[in-house]
Specification:
about 90 residues; alpha+beta; two-stranded antiparallel ribbon; 3 helices; HU Protein, Chain A; 3-stranded antiparallel sheet; DNA-binding
Length: about 90
């Protein structure tokens, strides 16, 4: 399912216009992105938690030259599924 399909399904379920639902979806996603980008967690009870995760510094190599190199510590977004979400997936 892509964003357009999600918007259509939610709009149909709530008997609302696609345009209005798309605006709400965009706002929710932008709010999550900005909040997590600012270093805060976004926890949706029963669904999951969005957060920043740290990747430790490590040794790697350049695949074309096979030269060893140091990869710096980095940050990336992470998601942990909540109990209700996990159970819904398991039951299918």
């Amino acid at each position: 399912m892509n964003k357009e399909q999600l918007v259509k399904r939610v709009a149909k379920e709530l008997d609302m216009s696609n345009k209005h639902v798309e605006s709400v979806v965009d706002t929710v996603l932008e709010t999550i992105t900005v909040t997590v980008g600012d270093g805060e967690e976004v926890a949706l009870h029963g669904f999951g938690k969005f957060e920043i995760r740290s990747r430790a510094a490590r040794k790697g190599f350049n695949p074309s030259t096979r030269e060893e190199m140091q990869i710096d510590e980095s940050k990336c977004p992470g998601f942990t599924a909540g109990k209700n979400f996990k159970e819904a997936v398991k039951s299918k």
